[in-house]
Design brief:
Elements lengths: L1 H135 L14 H15 L1
Length: 166
């Protein structure tokens, strides 16, 4: 019986050893699984941090490009303003020159109109004097022996034609 006990002990010891080994193996596997899980979690965190870092670098680069585009656009607009100001000065200078010419021509035109009115009045006065002389019979002419006696009639018709023009 002693053997029985010893063998049963041995078997029970070996059973508990196998349980303990299984338990140890199980614990090792669990520990290994936990380590794997922790490593995976760490890797996920590292991957997430890397993605965030890449995104941050990408965003910074995008912001830098955006600032450069904005600066270039601002420079282009500044250049355009300078060019437009130059064109404006040229146009203003041309417009001032044309305005001066216009004023000179308008003054000349006023002078010419005044002269025309004066000459028209003088012509009308002369025509009235001529008509007055004709109507009053105050025109004296002499007929010389070699002249044609149609002198007065021809001159009268010529004077009438001139008066009808005005």
């Amino acid at each position: 019986m002693a053997n029985y006990y010893s063998s049963s002990r041995t078997s029970s010891c070996s059973g508990s050893t196998s349980k303990s080994i299984f338990h140890n193996n199980n614990n090792k596997e669990q520990d290994h699984d936990q380590v794997d899980e922790q490593q995976q979690q760490k890797q996920l965190i590292i991957d997430e941090q890397m993605r965030k870092r890449k995104r941050m670098v990408s965003n910074r680069e995008s912001a830098r490009r955006s600032r450069l585009r904005k600066q270039k656009h601002e420079n282009d607009l500044t250049d355009q303003v300078c060019q437009l100001n130059k064109e404006k000065k040229v146009l203003i200078t041309g417009m001032n020159r044309i305005t001066q010419k216009y004023l000179i021509i308008e003054a000349e035109n006023r002078v010419l109109r005044a002269q025309m009115v004066e000459l028209s009045n003088r012509l009308q006065s002369l025509n009235e004097i001529i008509i007055s002389f004709i109507n009053n019979g105050n025109i004296y002419y002499s007929v010389e022996p070699n002249q044609d006696h149609h002198f007065f009639t021809d001159n009268y018709n010529h004077i009438n034609a001139m008066m009808l023009q005005y």
